[in-house]
Design goal:
Layout (H helix, E strand, L loop, with lengths): L22 E5 L5 H8 L3 E7 L2 H11 L3 E4 L2 H5 L15 E4 L19 E2 L8 E2 L3 H12 L3 E7 L8 H13 L3 E8 L7 E2 L1 E8 L17 H4 L16 H6 L18 E2 L6 E2 L7 E2 L9 H7 L13 H6 L4 H21 L1
Parallel strand pairs: 1-2, 1-4, 2-3, 4-7, 9-12, 11-13
Antiparallel strand pairs: 5-6, 7-10, 8-10
Length: about 350
Amino acid sequence: MIKLKHGDWNLTDLKDVSQNGLNVFSCFHCGGGSTMGYKLAGYNVLGGVEIDPKMMELYKTNHKPKHSYLMGVKEFCKIPNKELPGELFDLDILDGSPPCSSFSMAGNREKNWGDKKKFREGQAKQVLDDLFFDFIDIVEKLQPKVVVAENVKGMIQGNARGYVKQIFQALRSAGYSCQLFLLNAAFMGVPQQRERVFFVANRINAPDLVLDFCEKPIAIKNAIKNKAPINPKPMSTKAKPFWESTPLGGLFSECGSETGKMNRRSNPSKPSWTITANVSTYHWNEPRRLQEKELIAIQTFPQDYNFLGQGVGYVCGMSVPPFMMQRLSIEIEKQLLAVYYDK
């Protein structure tokens, strides 16, 4: 494992990581946040499945995957097994982050369940809340030793908990025992309060995974030190009064803002709020949004990541922080896969 400072690493550093000989394949990989986490932990990521051509272009540019499939998971599942590389049927981990906006606590939630949506240009309409079960179809097809699936905290809140029960049942039917964890990236080396649900399932009769991440949280002022922009875009005259009135760590909506009401003013002594694709995080004493280099550091993306002109906030907001997945995948290797291979 490379010892890295928060946000201060490059893709070129991966050449110094000791390899563990374990293979991963990723679904819904977006720009590859989880992929970078696995690589930092020493795994070999073979490639993945992604429906968004812009995200696939990012992934290929930055990660040089061996096997890439630009298509939806339903389409991938229809590929005859004999037409797929043999190594995909001998995976150590099948990773996936099914699009999760249907379960977010923001927005309409239940009102939108079952609706077909096009959640980014260039994609076919899909029923987002069905994609997790389409992912499990790939689990049944490829039969990996371990399955890791990430989703939003809203998955375990309110009526969405019924989906969790169905997911457990589907994985059990596929031959997997499953555990569910609510993890906070702030205790996993990421300078960000980001709570996410992780399903970890296995078919190798491994003992239960025990997770207790307790790294000291990193304050945002330390995470983005020396990364301030030279000519930051000034705040709009409409937003500035709300920023001025919002207490450190508070929401603009607390001060009456109806537009951008989920926007936040940072607290310099605490980790950043969750970086999302659509919500802006503002500096604590400068009237501006956090800028690209700062977002990259907060998300623990590498400094040399090539965004190919795509919005940094969008790519980071849609991705698993690499350090978060690094910490989790190290424990999976130690507690599950190492035990299996030592038998």
